[in-house]
Design a protein that fits this description.
The protein is α+β, with helices and mostly antiparallel strands. Helix content is 30%, strand content 22%. The protein has eight helices and 16 strands. The strands form six sheets. It has a six-stranded mixed beta sheet with strand order 1-2-3-4-6-5. A two-stranded antiparallel ribbon has the order 7-8. Strands 9-10 form a two-stranded antiparallel sheet. The longest helix has 21 residues, at 124-144.
């Protein structure tokens, strides 16, 4: 593939560490980290191997010795694997991964093979909050020091439509701090022609080594974390199904809407009315997320702070 200048993105479930060890360079190598504990890994992945947890940890530890871009890929499923952030941090630290991609699960409908429902799909702001906590936990391990301490990670990119956030190693992808915005510039994009050039040299001479930094490219401003575009490429056109638009476009920290579908600020009276509705809801379901396990193993999540999100108006 590389000889034909076709890039390679390989996603693994971390169950075949020997294959990862012997793998030739690929453009980007992923290991899916679906759970932070042995028990939750069995519950979520239903692995074939009895030693699945050990295989996952071994696979992640192999990543630190790879010369190319490596990614720990976390798929967040509310009610199932969204709690033990410290456990995730310890797993990521094993591989000193180049990137950590945190993405909300996409609900694809009911089936006999899945116990998921729409309440298990997190909102983008929830994925952002989880990623920020993960960054903090990784920083704690880094500060503790030692030979296995991970490098420093930063919030590099986000894509709201995909409900995903990217942590990146500062030493591999971090650039200068922009004096105007106060944000760090990043180089998380890939210079594909350079990668193919380096990969070809490696084929000709297997002793030739190259590193992540050798084929990075600058991240466009619209893709940076915190950008107004929220990851949407401004050259793309956005299409909404049946001309539906969000009823509310901004919320306060508690989840109460502050702006309407046109981006206009709601009156204090209207915000108070909505807050009272939320307070009533909290009397029923509690403050915060409550997980209910239903018959058949399905888990549903109730959270009053989300009651106004997802409401739409037709324009």
């Amino acid at each position: 593939l590389h000889s034909r200048e076709i890039s390679t993105f390989l996603v693994t479930n971390g169950q075949h560490p020997k294959a990862i060890e012997s793998l030739r360079p690929v453009t980007q190598l992923y290991v899916s980290v679906d759970a932070p504990t042995p028990e939750s890994l069995i519950e979520i992945d239903r692995p074939l191997f009895n030693d699945a947890w050990e295989r996952l940890k071994y696979s992640l530890s192999c990543l630190k010795d790879k010369g190319q871009r490596t990614v720990a890929r976390l798929t967040v499923v509310k009610g199932w694997n969204s709690d033990d952030i410290d456990g995730y941090a310890k797993l990521v630290a094993l591989g000193k991964c180049s990137l950590v991609e945190v993405k909300g699960v996409t609900f694809c409908g009911k089936s006999d093979a899945s116990n998921l429902n729409m309440t298990n799909t997190p909102w983008h702001h929830e994925v952002v909050a989880l990623t920020q906590k993960l960054q903090e936990e990784l920083a704690k391990i880094t500060a503790a020091g030692g030979p296995d301490a991970p490098p420093l990670y930063g919030l590099a990119c986000e894509h709201k439509h995909s409900c995903s956030v990217l942590l990146a190693r500062v030493d591999q992808f971090g650039g200068e701090i922009d004096p105007v915005t106060g944000r760090r510039k990043w180089k998380t994009w890939i210079d594909y022609p350079k990668f193919h050039e380096l990969a070809a040299r490696h084929v000709e001479d297997p002793t030739f080594k190259f590193a992540v930094e050798d084929y990075v490219a600058e991240t466009p401003s619209w893709a940076l974390f915190g950008a107004e575009e929220e990851g949407f490429d401004p050259t793309d056109n956005r299409h909404r199904k049946k001309r539906k638009h969000p009823k509310y476009t901004k919320f306060d920290l508690s989840g109460v809407p502050t702006h309407d579908d046109d981006g206009q600020e709601l009156s204090a009276q209207e915000r108070n009315r909505l807050k009272m509705l939320m307070d009533e809801k909290k009397k029923d379901v509690g403050d915060g997320s409550t997980v209910y396990t239903l018959k058949g193993g399905e888990k549903t999540v109730e959270d009053a702070s989300l009651m106004f999100r997802g409401l739409t108006v037709t324009k």
